[in-house]
Amino acid sequence: MFDYLVVGAGLAGSVMAERLAKTGKKILLVDQRNHVGGNTYDYYDEAGILVHKYGPHIFHTNSREVFEYLSQFTEWRVYEHKVLGSVDGQFVPIPINLNTINTLYGLNLSSDQVEQFLKERAETIVPVRTSADVVLSRVGKELYEKFFKNYTKKQWDMDPSELDASVTARVPIRTNKDDRYFTDTYQVMPLHGYTAMFNKMLAHENIKIMLNTDYKEILDMIPFRNIIYTGPVDSYFDYCYGKLPYRSIEFKHETVNKPVFQPTGTVNYPNEQAFTRITEFKYLTGQQHDKTSVVYEFPRAEGDPYYPIPTAENAEIYRKYQLLAATTPNVYFTGRLATYKYYNMDQVVAQSLTLFKKIQQQVLNAETQVNEKQNIRA
Q: Rounded CA gap, 70 and 317, in Å?
């Protein structure tokens, strides 16, 4: 008898498995794929270069709790990710900052001047409802079309005017020269890779792992008391309210016979190319090698579910599933797919740590009630 069947060996499920195992619970961790680590899984390709199978995963967080928790399972390499955009035949920093504007327009503006430059071009939009509204109200039509419009169309196969404001609200606009993609307190990469971190996290005698396994195939074969579910919430309930749509990505990995392929870790291609970006992994990992490996990302409608599509209609469908999930006994839902929301890695870890504390409190409350009843009888 297992105390918990944990469905999904990505961050959400593995954090839950590790935490619960430490309290003496017996855990069966199941994943459809042939590896742990979920979308953060990395491996050494044929050239001997450490690559991320499912596209680049750069760890960044402002949460000391999350950082210290993961630090139990890995040493870190400090890494500040930088992104360039291929716009008008030149590479310019993304997010848009002072250097972006000066390079793009051949100017020499100061921070105050670039702020005024953007203000003069910004459109007055009230209320701000869509992804297009967010960008147009901050930088105006020209920069919106150069950087955001086509990139968003490629990524989502929808016009930005059809998407929730949250999609582009995630990307800052800066008036200084800070060309880091993230500004979090902790910006690091696992020194030996994500897979090594997961292997250490899950190396506990109370955790048994089954890979290449659909959890539904074993529900009637292996006894357990509770489920931690990190898969698609609509799938758990057999799509009773319809299918929640996702965008997927096709990854094209390529090894190049030279030490460096591009000028920074990731280059975005907002316009005519079929792919959205190219990432070169050696920037992320710090690995030294006379060859280099890159990945091209091609957004797709079909494939593994990566990005929940943020529209009002989809949010309404999810709310129905959310209510079902909240009223399903002995099943706990955590992670991107189970809560139909795009989270950064640190947010997934934080969500599972919070769920673990909630379960611990429930156990404590139940034990207290039992003790109180026994005292009354006595």
A: 34
Q: What is the rounded CA–CA span in Å between residue 82 and residue 179?
A: 6
Q: Which two tokens stand for residue 182?
A: 């993230």
Topology (CATH level 3) of domain 2-36+202-245+309-361: Rossmann fold (3.40.50)
Q: Is there a cis peptide before residue 95, judged by omega within 30 degrees of 0?
A: yes
Ranges of each domain in the chain: 2-36+202-245+309-361, 83-169
Contact 187, 279 (CB under 8 A): no
The one-letter amino acid at 185:
T
pLDDT tier, 363 (very low <50, low <70, confident <90, very high otherwise):
confident
Whole-number Å distance between alpha carbons of 343 and 53? 19
Structure tokens at 112: 């105050």
Task: Please answer whether residues 56 and 34 qualify as being in contact, where contact means their C-beta atoms are separated by less than 8 angstroms.
Answer: no
* pLDDT tens digits, one per residue of 294-314: 999 999 999 999 999 988 999
